[in-house]
Amino acid sequence: MKSTVRDVMTTDVAAVDQQVSFHAVAELLIEKGVSAVPVLDDDGHVVGVVSETDLLAKEEFKGCYYGDDYRPPLRSRIRHSAGSEGNRHRKSLGETAGELMTSPAHVTLPDASIVTAARHMDRQGVKRLPVVDANGRLIGIVSRHDLIKVFLRSDQHLLALVKEAVRADELGISVTVSGGAVTFRGAFPERSQPSMALHLAGSVDGVVSVRHCIP
């Protein structure tokens, strides 16, 4: 009943290989209207992700080091060559996707749950995840926008899913859904069934709330 990444991912993915130039990556991001693309090796494995942030690092450091003929002292250049600043400086010198990308890439599997993918994005501070098969090859991409689609299911669709999950017709219980809120009306045959029904209904992706009303 739980939706997986496979249910919402995009399979038509814009991706680049490691030899693609800086300008070609920038043009692809603009053309596709995306902020990042996976970088693949020759066998289709995801080896990194190159984003707008990676590209902007080049301009940022160019302005810092070379703008108005400014050249920082050697000590400053050495300091920037270490740690995260050093990584950004390295990217500022890059000319290809392989040199500009962030690696390793944060990825997910197609059978991962929506909740798992959302938590992974939040934990890593990313807006999308390449979806890979068991061998690490790219098969799709999932974004935050894709994940919230499960909460846009129609009430009619949710009603069918909930009734199937709790076997409402067999129990003789009335079920209604309004704005994603599920309401059970009537007495369940057994005392233990209401809590189980509420739990099952609440686990359906897209359900906002569940309640039981007894006439």
Write a structural description:
- It is a single chain.
- This protein is an alpha/beta fold.
- It folds into two domains: 5-150, CBS-domain; 153-213, Alpha-Beta Plaits.
- Helix content is 43%, strand content 18%.
- The protein has eleven helices and eight strands.
- It has helices at residues 5-8, 22-32, 52-66, 74-80, 83-92, 97-100, 114-124, 144-147, 155-166, 168-171, 193-202; strands at residues 16-17, 36-40, 46-51, 128-132, 138-143, 174-178, 181-185, 209-213.
- A hairpin with a 2-residue loop joins strand 6 and strand 7.
- Helix 3 (52-66) packs across helix 5 (83-92).
- The longest helix has 15 residues, at 52-66.
- Residues 70-83 have low confidence and may be disordered.
- InterPro entries: BON_dom, CBS_dom, CBS_dom_sf, Diverse_CBS-Domain, UCP036990_CBS_BON.
- Residues 9-70, 101-161 form the CBS domain.
- This is CBS domain-containing protein.
- It comes from Nonomuraea rosea.
